[in-house]
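All the exercises in this workshop are built on plain-text protein records. Sequence and backbone structure share a record, each on its own labelled line. The structure tokens are whole numbers drawn from a learned vocabulary of backbone shapes. The record below serves as our worked example for the rest of this section.
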Amino acid sequence: MRDAATARGLEIEIRERPDARSLHEAADLLGLTPSDIVKTLVVKKSDDTYLFALVPGGRSISWPKLRAVVGVNRLRLPEPDLALAATGYERGTIVPIGSTVDWPVYVDETVLGRRVAMGAGSHGFSLFVDADALVRAYDATIADISVPE
């Protein structure tokens, strides 16, 4: 993962993450606000290709908004084995950095302008990165793709 970040000019920090029972508890443990914790969801398209959707804590994917931005009629979350095959990461650890395939990245517009915590490729760790640098490194599409939970 560090090599993949370096290859894209990204500075990352990986830290052990204590177990938490909720988003708010996780944010407190990391010294963050809930919206500073970004979920990376791998999403399957009907043509059996994938994309990454990055959504801040406290929000969830708006399927109609994401479909409109991507320009497709159908999207879904894949089964855990398909997500692993598509990214090389288990659910709960998925991050675009170091994925086995560089799938397109879609970032909710509310993520920008801050340092965020994300999955780090393995359980029990968080990856910290500047959200704007991540967007630039992956030529991500920025859009309104989420709704409050």
User: Anything to note?
Assistant: Strands lie at 13-16, 38-45, 50-56, 59-61, 75-76, 105-108, 115-119, 125-130, 141-143, 146-148. The helical segments are 2-7, 23-30, 63-70, 80-87, 131-137. The chain has one domain: 2-148.
